[in-house]
Amino acid sequence: LQMAAVFQLVLFAVALATRWFGQAGIFGSAAILGLADMDALTISMANMVGTGTVPIVAARAVVIGVTANTIVKLTIAAVIGRGHFRTLTVAGLAAIAVALIAAFWASYFLS
After folding, report:
1. What is the spatial distance between Cα 107 and Cα 105, in angstroms, rounded to a whole number?
2. Which terminus, N or C, of the chain has the lesser number of Cβ atoms within 10 Å?
3. Rounded to whole angstroms, how far apart are CA atoms 95 and 42?
């Protein structure tokens, strides 16, 4: 029940941001939501595509959210990780973040 309420709140917040700021609102809310959790963002984007949002915009928003989430995890690993774990985790997450950013920018040139 609590998770359903969170999802509804997220749907409302994303819809409001989209109404006020258009595509920038979708991307901004995706970055903020990605800092904490990807589930609500993914469901929100799926619902928005169902109500008329262009699929590539929703896909880009998900990539932004995943990138933000990856950067949070990278930061946590860098700050509290120790030894070999820190090195491997930070390197792996940094590679993922670079690939996500490249995919985001490539989507503008390949679509």
Report:
1. 5
2. N
3. 22
Record the tokens describing residue 27, joined without a space.
Answer: 């991307």
Residue 1's pLDDT band, with cuts at 50, 70 and 90, is low
Burial of 107 (0-12, 13-18, 19+ CB in 10 A): middle
Q: What is the pTM of this model?
A: 0.86
DSSP per residue, 30-65: HHHHHTT-SHHHHHHHHHHHHTT--HHHHHHHHHHH
State the Cα–Cα distance between residues 50 and 108, nearest whole angstrom: 22
Which helix (H) or strand (E) element contains residue 12?
A: helix 2-21
3-class secondary-structure state, position 66 = helix
Rounded to 5 degrees, φ, ψ at 20 are -80, -40
